[in-house]
Amino acid sequence: MNTRILYLTDNHLLAYQVNKKTLVEVQLFPPGPAGEADFVKYLTKDPKTPVIWLVDTTQEEYQTTHLPHVSGRDRSHLLTRKMRRLFEYTPYTYGVVQEREQQGRGDDKVLFLALNNPALLQPWMNLLTTYKVPLIGVCSVPLLSQRLLKYLVKAPYTLLITHTPARNEQSLDGLRQSFFLNQQLQVSRLIPLNTLAPTEYAEYMIGQIIKMQRYLESARLLPVESNEILTVVIFTETLLLKTLQQYPTAPLENLQLHFIDSHDFAHQIGWRSTNNDTVYWHQLLAYHTAKHSWGLSNHYAQPVETRYFRYRKIRFRLYLSALLLLASAGTVSYNILEQALVIKQQGDDKERQVAQRQTELKQLRTQVPDLPIDIVLMRNVVDLGLHLTSLHLSPRPAWEKLSQVLLRHSNLLIEQLEWGIGATATEIFPPLATSSQSGIDRDNEGTTGNNQPPPVGSDTQTATPPDYFWEGLRVQGKISPFGGNYQNALHLFESFIVDLRKQPQDFSLVKELVSPYNLRRTLQGKIGDSEKDLTAPYAVEILIKHKYKRDPSS
Questions:
Q1: Burial of residue 52 (number of CB atoms within 10 Å: 0-12, 13-18, 19+)
Q2: DSSP SS3 for 415
Q3: pLDDT single digits (tens) 32-68
Q4: Which of 181, 296, 360, 393 has its CA 20 to 30 Å from the CA of residue 498?
Q5: What is the signed CA dihedral for 202, 207, 209, 211, rounded to 10 degrees?
Q6: How far apart are CA 450 and CA 509, in angstroms?
């Protein structure tokens, strides 16, 4: 998203534009009627591009306090009431919960900020609202600097020192000192920088660092008892940086200095400057914010001042929704059209086949005028012929599949093997007859291990042949050697059944007709039974489904 950056100080307003991988200064607007007139011209040239407003001023106040821990709407109301009491005369306030106490009541630690002089921002903001320019938010530079701390050295107590430029003879360069506790802003101050002569600059800088350290200790922001180290990060240009590095720092206690060259840091965050001009902290912050504006927190702007940006987001969402609906409708229409073309093609093919068959029928009636030929009769004759052809099966493939399973179960002896085919499952084998059971326990007759229902159409006859027929194998035998161990015999039989059912591509249905273990027979027993008279018979019925062959042209 293309964005513009407005940078407001105590003395001027600057407009920036992100140009590829650098930040370009577009125009400077001094306070007063002339600057406001130029600002109006700037806005009217491009009133649609969103704006991010950065405020870097001495008229910003910071207060840290503790509030009871609440959440949701209660937290918002509590923060609003507290800000009204702390900053009674300005609408530009902001509060952010930084952390929660680990001891005591578990209160929230909250940082409150405010612009003490609304007149600094209000004239420019009125013009922005008048010309309906979408405003993303008004952000405090010290608080927004937290977004760049991830590129710096990490320390619990950090003092960041940056510069602000002078734009006229009446203003001086500025020196901003921002203190962060665990990467979160606590306090910041902007003071004049009287000189840029390297030696005097280094002496002045060290003196201001010591003053800030004493202030933090007196304000209990930096613990004195534990002698905590204050990490000082100095962000400046190359020439002044070399002088600072050579300046004697032996008298400094509990201070650890880190020097950052502004050009090196700019390159680190993706800035590609083509000249050797001074790069300021606020410029890098503006560039980084413009590149990562998604999820940016608004600090000071009122809802009425950001409404045009909200309207813009709503329009964008509506346009996106309309585009998605249009794309979905196009996709559905294309699929329907594609299906219609396929159906039309199939209909044309059928129409040609019908015309061809009618032509052949006319020729046949011409050749055999006395033969009564009917299309339905011919169809039934062809279907019957195809069904009869399908029923000419050899039992060999089924026996080979069964033998492959039996090879893995050598204890199962086969005494009788039956094979057959039929239109329904019940036509293949009759029920086990009493005279042919050879001692097989009749109490288990008709049981099925998997409790599957008979195949559809197995007990009914239809006028037309079904879509498939059945091939069946009935295996009867006994477990040998047996030795009276019914539990072991049952285990061998169940293993055999499981092995058969693991091959549904070969065996469509497996029925357990007789199991080698019958609890009632075992309990009753017989007087005088010997171990050699005991047997473990079994019977299994295997069904294989086959489809009838169909006429390819039908």
A1: buried
A2: strand
A3: 999 999 999 999 999 999 999 999 999 999 999 999 9
A4: 393
A5: -170
A6: 9
